[in-house]
């Protein structure tokens, strides 16, 4: 879906593709949620076709994840960062609902209305002629997803998520809860020891793949150090 973001014939078409792709990044609960927080410097480096993606945990308190994705063939680059923002909006309303508007930035005229559910169908309504079209079908997008494969195990970084939490995840899958807890504690204690070492030496930690800055006005800025993301040893199918 990301490759479609650069194929539209007009800015509107390309923006609609970006909206559809953003919706696709929300996954239903069937994919599960890892019961642990990323460690500082944890990475995930994966490729699919010509698209190469690199994520790095650039802050632990607060938790911030930076992402850099490039596709040289399609001339696509994405730089993005994420951090949870706690909010309390009350108990009313429907869950899994997507609603929004696409408007012209100069005239503020609403061009399209977006409506649907991120776990099923999301439609786009053209306000000029009231025509509707589906821009996202969760079943169609998710049904073909498969677990990634490791193409080159020796090239997997020790900071790779699957490597860091491999033993913990395996014990969880085996329902060996006590062993999973112990494996998780080993990872966490290693991080505490590294923190103590840095503090004793008066050193600060810096990300390996991004430069970061923060301001109250702009929030977090995570800029990739390298222009292109290299091919990854892990392949998404």
UniProtKB/TrEMBL annotation:
<dbReference type="InterPro" id="IPR018494">
    <property type="entry name" value="Oxysterol-bd_CS"/>
</dbReference>
<dbReference type="GO" id="GO:0005829">
    <property type="term" value="C:cytosol"/>
</dbReference>
<dbReference type="GO" id="GO:0016020">
    <property type="term" value="C:membrane"/>
</dbReference>
<dbReference type="GO" id="GO:0032934">
    <property type="term" value="F:sterol binding"/>
</dbReference>
<dbReference type="InterPro" id="IPR000648">
    <property type="entry name" value="Oxysterol-bd"/>
</dbReference>
<dbReference type="Pfam" id="PF01237">
    <property type="entry name" value="Oxysterol_BP"/>
</dbReference>
<protein>
    <recommendedName>
        <fullName>Oxysterol-binding protein</fullName>
    </recommendedName>
</protein>
<comment type="similarity">
    <text>Belongs to the OSBP family.</text>
</comment>
<dbReference type="InterPro" id="IPR037239">
    <property type="entry name" value="OSBP_sf"/>
</dbReference>
